[in-house]
Amino acid sequence: MAKVEIVDVRKSYADTHVLHGIDVAVRDGEFLVLVGPSGCGKSTLLRMIAGLETISGGEVRIGDTVVNRLAPKDRDIAMVFQNYALYPNKTVAANIGFPLKMRGERAAVTRQKVEEAARILGLEDLLGRYPRQLSGGQRQRVAMGRAIVRDPKVFLFDEPLSNLDAKLRVKMRAEIKELHQRLGTTMIYVTHDQVEAMTMADRIVVMRSGRIEQVGTPLELYDRPANQFVAGFIGSPAMNFLPGTLERNGTATTFLAAQGERIALAEGMTPPPGGHVVFGIRPEHLDLSFTELGDAFSATVAVVEPTGAETLVLARYPGGELTCICKGRPDVRPGQTVWLRPHLQDSHIFPAEC
Ligand code: ADP
After folding, report:
1. β-strands 286-289, 276-281: how paired?
2. Whose CA is nearest to atom 24 of ligand 1?
3. What mean pLDDT, rounded, does the chain reach?
4. Which residue, judged by its Cα, is nearest atom 21 of ligand 1?
5. Distance of CA 348 from the midpoint of ligand 1 (Å)
6. Ligand 1 atom with minimal separation from the 37 CA
7. Of 334, 340, 341, which Cα lies nearest the Cα of 304?
8. Which residue has the higher pLDDT, 252 or 196?
9. How far is it, in rounded angstroms, from Cα 40 to Cα 342?
10. How much distance in Å is there from the Cα of 9 to the middle of ligand 1?
């Protein structure tokens, strides 16, 4: 186990600057997820920690060692990739034991470690099979087994579940989380999928265009997003955004929506300076009414999606749309006019910038 410190790390390919100075301190034993849209630089950062990319500037420390110039094999890390990278002509046991064989480990030790990894991952009955005889999830487990036997200080995962179907992804997500709880080893995990990030991470690093937007626990990011980008990226269905302006009257502040509604903001909310803002509200923080309400947005129901436990309502107003999640099964139909009242304590105001 080890902490990992990333200090002002930069990456450029000739004139193309991909990472602009990244600072993250990964705690010993932490499960840290790097998440962001495609191309934001998360894989590049992970590969720099692994030693698969050179570091253009800054420092990466694993434990107390600066690893900038160390070869990947000397960093005491194990990486699990999206494409498994298994040897097709080796059995599961030989695939898992391969790093130990390369290290010149004694056969008896290798066998014992392979069996232990197989037990942790539920692969005991498959040790004699070849990769082609395995499902996608089993192959991914073999790749994890190969990482486990090395007993590394840090595990690095690069989108390991992207090739699996939705149901298997959910299962493997839980397996990796359980593996972390069991091993207690520092893990850094890259994904573009915010649900994976939310469900697995101790802390999440949200990246955009080679910069960090916010670092925090899943619920910190969900409840207190630092900006509109993080607010829109974390959470599904996504947060609703309505453009408008603020009107201040003494200590009271009112949001004036572009389409005319007025929402008195909660006391203690510190709105950004400037006139133009974006009001943000998550779908579960809107109450739906069939009669006119103050401090509410009026809209016309476009789509109703019942999921059993709750009902998702998509409603449109001139210039935008609002998603609302209602508990239970309200009798709501397309074409109806509804009023959606935000819970003031759960509302957000962002500067109008993105
Ligand atoms: P992510 O993992 O977040 O999808 P990457 O780390 O793979 O993003 O890539 C970050 C950015 O770096 C992208 O814009 C990509 O085009 C660029 N990039 C990656 N590799 C190279 C390279 N060898 N040369 C130039 N640009 C690269």
Report:
1. unpaired
2. 13
3. 93
4. 13
5. 33
6. 3
7. 334
8. 196
9. 32
10. 15
Position in ligand 1 atom list of the atom nearest CA 41: 6
What residues flank ligand 1, with Cβ below 6 Å? 13, 16, 18, 36, 38-44
Please give the torsion angle defined by the CA atoms of residues 122, 124, 129 and 132, in that order, rounded to the nearest 10 degrees. 0
> Which residues are within 8 A (CB) of 322 and not within 5 positions of it... i.e. 6 or more apart?
240, 242, 286, 297, 299, 314, 315, 316, 340
Task: Report the pLDDT averaged over residues 74-86.
Answer: 88
Q: CA 133, CA 152: separation in Å to the nearest integer?
A: 28
The pLDDT tens digits for 101-139 are 998 999 999 999 999 999 988 899 999 999 999 998 899
Strand (E) or helix (H) holding 204 = strand 203-208
Burial class of residue 3, CB neighbours in 10 A (0-12, 13-18, 19+):
middle
Q: Which two tokens stand for residue 128?
A: 């004699």
- Compute the distance from residue 162 Cα to the ligand 1 centre, in Å: 18
Locate 237 and state its tokens.
């269905």
Classify residue 250 by burial, with Cβ atoms within 10 Å: 0-12, 13-18, 19+.
Answer: exposed
Query: And the tokens for 217?
Result: 């626990």
**258: which 2 tokens?**
């572009």
Amino acid at 68: N
Closest ligand 1 atom, residue 40 Cα: 3
Whether the CB-CB separation of 199 and 191 falls below 8 Å is answered with no
Under DSSP, is residue 7 helix (H, G, I), strand (E, B) or coil?
strand
**pLDDT, tens digit, for every residue of 246-278?**
988 888 889 999 888 999 998 877 777 777 999
- Give the C-alpha separation, 334 to 302, whole Å: 5
How large is the average pLDDT for residues 270-290?
Answer: 89
